[in-house]
Structure formats: C-alpha cells, structure tokens
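Course assignment 3, question 2. Fill in each field.
Student: A.L.
Task: Predict the tertiary structure for the chain below.
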Amino acid sequence: MPEISKEEVAGIMDKYQKQLNSQLGDAQPIQQQPEEEKDEVVKPVSSREYVQFKNEYMPATLSIYEKLCNYFEKLLKLPPNPKKKAMLEDGIKVCHLNITPTGANTFALMAPFLFGFFAAAISYILMDGSMFFPMFFVILAAAMIRPLGNIPMMAAAKKRMEAGSQMVLSVFYVVTYMRHTSNLELAIEFAGEHLAPPLSVDFKKIVWDVETQKYESIKESLDSYLQTWKGHNDDFIEAFHLIESSLFEGDEERRIAMLDKSLSVILDGTYEKMLHYAQGLKGPMTTLNMLGVILPVLGLVILPLVVSFMEGVSWMHISALYNVALPLSIFFLGRKILATRPSGHGQVDISKHPGLKKYANKIVKIGGKEIVIPPVIISVLIGAVLMLIGLLPVILHIVAPTFDLPLTDKFQLLDYHCPQKMVKCTLAEQIGPYGLGATMLSLFIVVAIGVPIGLYYRHKSANVMEIRNQSRQLEQEFASALFQLGNRLGDGLPAEMAFGKVAESMRGSVSGGFFELATQNITRLGMSVEQAIFDPQHGALVQYPSSLIESSMKVLTESSKKGPKVAAQALINISSYIKQMHKVEERLTDLLGETIGSMKAQIKFLTPVITSIVIGITSMVSTILGKLSRQMKEIGKDTKGSAAGGMMGLFGDGVPTYFFQAVVGVYVVQIIYILTVTANGIENGNDKLNERSELGKNMFRSTLTYCILASIIILMFNLIAGAVIAKKG
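Answer field:
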C-alpha cells in the first residue's frame, strides 16, 4: 500500500472540512437566511444566549447579593472553615453565582456588624439613652450572621425545590423524545426548550458546556451535572443513568423497556420521598404553629398587665418584637420546612401565552373598549385612603390638640390626657389616644395594609388563573384525547382526519375545543397539521397554552415523519405517561391533605378569630386599668401619703389600645402572609401563580375577618368594662 504524504492528508482534510462547513454552516449564514427558513434551523446554545437567559432568570436580589459579596471581599478577606467552604461552593455552583466562598463569608460577618453598630448608635441617640433598641439591634445583627452566611445554601435549596417540581416532567420529555429518536443531545435540547426555569437553564447549560468544549460529549456533561443532585435526589440520577444505558441497547424492545423503567423510577421515588416528608411534617408544623400563633397570642393576654405596671414600655417595643423579631423567626422556620420538601410533580406552565402580561392587570370595559389598569395603582390608592382614616386620631391631635368628641358619658373619640406622674401638663406632653373611637379607627390601619395586598394579588392572578385552570383541565383530559388520537392514527387515518374525529367525539370538553380549533385551521385556512397547532397567530396552542400539550404535539409531528404506526404508538405511550404522573399527583395531594387542611383553617379562621378575641380582652383590661389609675390619681390628690396614694404608684400609663391593636393587627397580616406562602410551598412546591392566587384570597378575607370580629368584640367588651367601672364607682 503506497504511503500517503502529509500534503495529501492536508488536502483530504481541507476538502472534507469545506464540505462540513457547507453542510453545517456557521453563525453568519444562519443569520442571513430568509424568515421562512429561520424557524427550521436548530441553533446551538451559545454562551451569549445562555448568559442572557441566566440574567433573565436570576432574581434581582441574588444579583445585588453578588455585588455586595464581591465588594466586601475587596475590602477584607475572611475565609470560611473547610466544612463551610465546601457547602458554600456547592450552593454557588448550583445557583450559578459569580462569587467566591470567601466573599460570601466576609459579607455574612461584616454586614451584620456594620448594621448592628450603626443601628444601635442611632437608636441610642434618638431614644434618649434607652438601652432596649440598641440591645435589640445588636441581638438582631448577631442573629443575622447565620442566615446571611447560608444564603447560597438557601438559594440552592430553593432552586432544588423549584427544579424538583419539574424533574418528573424533565424525565418525561427526554423519554418521550428518545422513544422515537435515540439521541441524548437532541432529547436534552427538547426538554430544555419545553421546561420552565430553573431546570431549563440547567439543561441548556449541559448542552452549552459541550458546545464550548468544556466536556467532550453530552454524556460527560450530563454526568457532571447529575453530581450536583447526589444526595439530594438519587432517583433523578438513576433515571438518567437508565436513559443513558438505553443508548447502548441493540434490541429495540429492551431499549424502550429501559426508557419506561426510568420514568417509573422517578415517579416511584417521588411518591416515596413525599410519603416520608408528610410523615415528618407534623413536628415542624407544630413548632411553627406554637411559635407563630399560640405563644404570641398568650403573650398578648399578659402584655396589657406588663405595660401597665412597668414604666418606659411603649408600643414601639411591642412592635419590635411582634412586627420584626417574630415574623423573621417564623419566616426562616417556614423556609427551613420548605427546603426539605422533596421533588414533586410538574406544574401547569402558561408562560408562553401571548396575553399573559395583559391579563396580569385589572381589565375594565368601558364603551366597548378595554382599559388595562396595573393592580399596584389600585392597591396604593385604596391603601392610602384607608391609612389616612386610620391615622386620623394622631393627625387630629397634631392639627387641633384640644379637639375631642364624647361618644357616650364614659367613652371619648380621642381621649388624650396627662401622664400619671404629672398633675398638670402642656398639650405637647399629653399621651394617648386612649379613646374607644381611636381604637376603632386603628382597625383601618390593618385594613390599609392587608386589603390592598390582597387586592393586588387578586387582580394580578384572577384572569391568569382562568387561563391556567383551562390549561390544567386540558392536561387532565389530554391523556384520554391522545389515546383516542393514537388509536385513530393506528387505524390508518391521516392526522388531518383523525383530529376531526377526536374533536367530534370529545365535543363540549376543553380537549374537544383544542382539536376542533386545530381542525378548523386545517379545513378553513388550509394549514398543515403542524401549522394548525404551532402557528404563532392562529395555532391551537395560542388559545390553549401548555408546555405538556406543546411537547406532545411536537412528538406527534416528529414521529409522523416515520409513519402513522410510529406516531400512533408514540401518542399512546405519552397518554400512559400522563396518566401515571396524574396518579402520583393525586397520591401526593392525599398525603399532604391533613397538614394542608389544618394550615388553611389556621389562615382563614382560627388566627383571625383567636387574635380578635384577645385584642378585645386587651382593650377591656386596658380600659379598666386606665380608669382605675385615674381614679387612684384623683383619690391621691385628696389623701396624700395614704394607701390609695401609694397604690397610685403601682400603675403606669400603659400602652394605648390604638397602638396596641395596630401592632397586633399588622402581625396578623404578616402571619397570614407567611403561613399562606408556606402552605402553598408544601402543597404545590414552587407554584408562584397559585401562591399569588391564594395570597389574594387569604389576605383580603382573613384581614377583613379579623377587623370585623375585633370591632364587634372591642365594642362589646368595652361596654362591659364601662358597666363594671360605673358599678364600682
């Protein structure tokens, strides 16, 4: 055999290199293609595309956190210990943060130190040397060190929870694609295209790392990514290892069986993990209930007595405990409970609906025209008016210090008076308002916070939830529709006729509407099956947005190229997969039913009712103690040095019920918000749309429930207090 020279080798390589370039093309020819051909080109995931996608997905808070960590690292380097460093590196890698463990640790130590120092110094100056707030801020700063140091781990846990709810769906997409095309890279691209963030970002990065030659093959890149889930979701890793193994199977039946096994592994693993999670949820939820509701409510019963017999205690001290320290503690406890939640099922994704931004606003129809009003404008206006009403007692006293209005012979509207230790005082030295009218008006402060927040989330989610519920119903019915469609194709009918048959048999259902719209596009507009479904203006998916439906239809169009029998089998298999996922979803809902039911009862009824009763009792006790202390003061004037005069020193001025109720009411709004977010996270994982819908319902309803009940109980108990005082008098 003659020896081949280097020049000949170079010529052959150059020849085939040119052929490859002409067939594959580069970035420039792709950009110059006509519009109708662009959609048919599969573009590789470039670094610019990935970085842009990451920036769109990355929360703004994490971007600020990155800047702060890098800034503090430039000022001072405080490296963490080796164990903490490994944990930080894992969290940074999972969240794709552009920081170092040293920067994260430095920020976690320096930021609380600076905050505690300046907050303590300023509060010491403003509070005339009182040590409560300086000590409060020092303790708060010390408590901040651990949460700030765990931000990468908490963000990673949140991301894993968000991604966990998509894992079953991701395996479903990969398996569905690989049943008809045994190509792992194309299957991962297909899954990345149809998944929502954050798992779509990870899948795009798997391909991106191959494109940028970080890894030599898609398998190597995938295996590296799967290592980030080691110890967190081993079933996900096992499922993908089975998918990889199917590539090496020569027998088609064994290959398909291995793909089916991978989906069964992730579904069974999800159910088992959720079972253990539900079993272990009772303890943390009891702690959350005790810390968030029971103990604070018991504290409210004692607080009126404490502040009446202790000098120097003001509503600001109570607010620091009830509106800052307690909500933060409950929030982090709730986040800890959610961080341990295993991966669940996929949510209905309607992010591709063309009118999503429009329907996230309040739409008012006037004269046949639609006016779109941002919910934040409505909420701010209503909140400002209600807050103005709530602050009237303070505003009236500032504008007209001598103004007051008697409601009955025992109760006044404002009731400002001199402190107990002062016989006479100026208008500026008067304290209050202690009046029943002011207490009733303080309820508007609570309404001004809770109701606008509820209205904001209600208007932002109401229209979108209708779209989402329609898509959810479509997905639930779609398994049956796909089975029918698969059978029609298996009988030899072309897809165009099969769509019409399915639309006719399912008329009146959401699925029937989907297939009927596709059939109309085919018959009236002369579209192909693919255009009838995917056309950006008239396609059926425009009116029925769903990533699950979209991916199923793409599998149909792709498998149809290999023949109707292949397409029929693909649709029947997809139908089986969807039924399996729905079955697991129902099991998970049943497992968490008791816990979720208890939390919803706490949010909607128990917390507002219990707190309103306690605030009514507090108002009665404060009224009695206030009247009693004034009577003691009058007696003390006439009998100086007597027992009555000595007893007068036992009573302080107490906190006006006006401020006390406002602090407690705001705490009720805070706890309802935190419990709603926690309950939704436990039940649905990272389902932001359902979270907004639940917040819209609970914040509006529970806030009004508390305020209405509190107003009734305050009036009733104050009338009792007035009768007691009159009788004793």
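Instructor remarks: Residues 25-47 have pLDDT under 50 and may be disordered. The beta strands are 362-366, 369-373.
Grade: pending
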